[in-house]
Amino acid sequence: MFLEIKKLSIKIENKNILRNLNLNINEGEVHAIMGPNGSGKSTLANVLAGKEDYEILEGEVTFKNKNLFELNIEERAQEGMFLAFQYPVEIPGVNITPFLHSAINSKRNRFNQKEIDNLSFAKLLKSKASDLGIDIEMLKRSVNTGFSGGEKKRYEILQMSILNPDLAILDETDSGLDIDALKIVTEGVNKLKTKSNSFLIITHYQKLLDYIKPDFVHVMNNGSIVKSGGSEIASEIEKDGFQQFQ
Amino acid sequence: MNIQEIYQKNKKNIFFSENKDIQIHREKLINVFITDRFDKKSNESLKNINLKNFFDFKYKYLLPEETSVINNNQDSSYSIVSVNGQCASFKDDKIEITKISDKDYNDFSKNNTIEKNDHFVNLNSLFLNSGFKIIIKKNNNIKIKISNIVTDDDLTIFQKNNFICEEGSSLSLIEEYENKNNSTSNILNVIKLEKKSSLNHFLIQDNSSNHNLVITSHSSCKKESFYNQRVYNFSDGYVRNFHFSELLEINSEADLQGIFFLKDNNTSNNKTFVKHFAEDCKSNQVYKGILKDRAKATYFSNTHVDQVAQKTEGYQLSKGILLSDNASYFSKPELKIYADDVKCSHGSTIGPIDENAIFYLRSRGMSKNAATKILISSFINEELSSIDDEQMSELIQKKLIRYLSKVK
Fold it and tell me: pLDDT digits over B40-60, tens only?
């Protein structure tokens, strides 16, 4: 099993957010989690990525046969986990290019691989940016600073394509995107799909799933997965909303 | 021993103690020390300092054996080594360097804009034992680097310097303070910018923990002149940076900026004050601080806009990162505006490093330590990237790396 979440319960500031949550993801699978606001979807994404302000009440998570909770935030990233943020953080003064270069090399260092030199990285970045319709000028700017909502999401996908993760968690990547940007972003995701990497896509709407076909769709409510199935669930939600699962 | 006794005992070694006018001025200053209550709450010059260390001191001064001025005519640059506050006299067709004179002292003591309750400035006037005057002659464009060296332990340097930029001249001035001995330097720089002149003034401070540095500067700008000051404080010892600027004539400008990097139990007090006395003048006051361990800092900024100073633009900003729960940074911006057509603003943000940004960077594979360092560097990136002088930029980067190496 690639990612295995067993009976996971989480609380933050005395409020239980995830309750007895179970989820299994195999290599090469695309899973979607849908749910109403406040159901715990983003908490799940943040807990998996390693955000430290949550208290784990019980349960276990293994990622590539390693206990996820024994890995810190950067170790999870270096092991191949990637979170595309719902609200990417603006970091003025940190230039995109050296930041991404340093990120990719931190992963390579973990596995004693040779670092990518400046020239090779510049070529890689330019080519990936071009695939996502990102202007080269944007790569001279600070991380997410002064970006529009759509630019931030596109930039998250650029990072994903550079870091080439084994498991990518997309937290409401479709929010704030117009239809053209949505197409570009989802094309970028689809290009990355292989038999050996997996995706966990968090969304409110079916629209995103029209472009990225999921193998499994899960409905989350009140901190638990209440229904799992194929893409027909997304159509049910689109038709009748989330009320039916509450 | 009180201030009066220290003065009486050492006056033979103090500049101008035979000058009648100066004697009268000093008697008044002594009286201020006798009558003042040294109330830390009401006197900004006394915040966060151990009064005993500075006002009950043992006076000691040694005349240096050697000082030097080296000039390189090819690129109009000069290297000055100021030892115990003294500088060799020098003259060519571009600059003139002389010892500070009693006339310079009197000019300063009669300046009404200087705060009378600043005890460090008063100490400087009372115990003056060194200093020099540099005149940049009309329409010359030159660069000066001054290395300020203190030779021995337990010295008390009280130094006044005058910098005069004549009409149309342009000066790039780099002052380095890197002293490792157990001494105190109390320095007052008086800067005059004549019409259409400019001064880019960089102060790099990197003293050891037993060296106290007190710097005060007063700059006055005539028509279309520009005073630009950048302070980089990496010192482990106490540093005070108090800088005042007066915009006296139309289209003049003052830009006072500083960054301090504090650690351990160190303290730094900072103040900038710009007075607008003419139309169409601009000022900018920006200080940023990074504090770890139990370090403490204060920053007072003040913009005064006279009623005749219409079309003034005056900005103030203070920012701080606290890397420890025990570090503290007190910031107080003030604006006093008596004109009605002005653009002025102030802002202050101090807090711990942004945890969301740390999480974001770590989620891409960076270690916590690397993420913290990159965020500290980014906090001051704008100030560092604006340094034009390549040699100085490298020097500051080197000192920054040394500071960051101690950040966990």
Answer: 777 877 888 888 778 888 999
